[in-house]
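# step 3/5: fold
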Amino acid sequence: MSIKRIFDFAHQALEKYPQDDMFITKYHGEWEKTSTKEFNNLGDKISRGLLKLGIKPGDKIALITTASRTEWAVMDLGIAQIGAVSVPVYPTISPEDYDFIFNNAEVQYCFVSDRELLEKVQQIKSNVPSLKGIFTFDKVEGAANWNEILDLGNDDATQNEVEDLSNSINAEDLATIIYTSGTTGRPKGVMLSHQNIVSNVLACDPRIPRIKGFDYKDIRILSFLPICHVFERMLFYLYQNNGYSVYFAESIEKMGDNIKEVKPHIMTVVPRLIEKVYDKIYDKGTSAGGLKTKIFLWALGVNKAKKNLGKPSGLKEIIADKLVFSKWREGLGGNIITLVSGSAALQPRLNKMFQNAGIPILEGYGLTETSPVISVNSFGKIKVGTVGHVLDNLQVKIQEDGEITVKGPSVFKGYFKNEEMTKEVFTEEGFFKTGDIGHIDEEGYLHITDRKKEMFKTSGGKYIAPQAIENQAKASKFIEQIMVVGDGEKMPCALIQPDFNFVQHWAERKQINVGTTPEEIAKSPELKERIGKEIDYLNSKLGNWERIKRFQLTPEVWSIETGILTPTLKLKRKAVKERFIDLYNKMYDHDQEA
């Protein structure tokens, strides 16, 4: 069948890839499977139930879940195939942002996963005139449950109406509004059509690896990134397009357990997760002691010296793989074919290290506005430090100032209720301005240099690209997070969150008392001196104008919950600066100036 709308993936899966375990979610400690047939039947029930509630094509329905789960997938199908518009919302945003999104989109019904999210939405319900009802996936006393919609749709007498509506939906029709979490200001409603998402899925499909001897029923996916994020959602459809089984991870905290249980073949990741996995491996290897630590460090040296990516060749590489890197693969379940990385730049040294350890990482690049993928590496064509070749159905043009612009079927329809902002992000030739700086090399690989909006100019007129500096800095074991600042100031400085766990192990080994809480650790003069050496080393690789002249250690962990990281663990630069404004002022002697 021809795929033109997002719900066509589910219908095709039933026709071509029927299986017992299409989606799998853990409830009360047990994995529960939903078959392809049951998934489609449940989607039809939701469609019929929503029609009985009075939902019409174009009406907006919000979906919010703490962790991705099968109910979200069912709702997505049921909403899409009757022409309604889904509005997926991040669970971690503030009630104020909920208020803005619900009113901006004129949400009519909202489905939430649990009691905590229900209470969050109830806080703003009275402010949203369009909101008629809230349903929960978990059973919450006193709350309407999503089973009520399924019960409403039990009678299949109105299935003809569902099919008539489904047949009337065009590829160009609006499928979803995704509000970007944004690093500054109010969320923007990105309007994506069925064609936007479908064209991206079909263009990305040839880039994923096919392994000889594997049937579609053999492939297991572990999905843990928020499904409301367009990166994970596009892949969610891509997995359906191939008939793969999708296991929804319980949480980031339980990822380790879930990997052991599922033994996945493909996982999507963000660079921060790769960094954390490597830190855990390194800590374990270096703390083993004696011969084990010597072997571990020797193997890392062999890995680093390896000239060509891929399988081990030569006796040293084979021994290193057998003794050390085979255990890395076992730690990821033993079946990993590839990790797919997006959302931010991955440190090239880590990328190379994992590739050489037999864990290929396909790094890609895109934005919510491009549904999302613009370019991605593919098997046999991986170039570390790049985001791969541009998708075949897209046209990328590098503007005179280095900004990456793109045109093609996956570029969004515009910002909801904001024509002025929509006009601002397109060139006269109709190319979407990504806001990223980059270039395409002679082999056709796209390189991302920095975010255009994140680049800043010091008072001396020198431009600083902070992301590139921050990525290099995070190679240090002592630095968990860093933000380079200095817009309009006389010099670049940095706010740094130490890796508090590593620092405590370091302090124990050195018999230094740094305290036990983040507040105490951040005040340690010995730690500041040690991190100073890391900054000196970093500065030795930078131009004079880029060098970090001063830094301050922050007394807390940077997190999504505190509002300074996005759900995909990127910095909210304005929020970071505001939260640590006293430390910022101290670096620039603003208090003294006042």
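# step 4/5: annotate
The mean pLDDT is 91.
# step 5/5: archive (pending)
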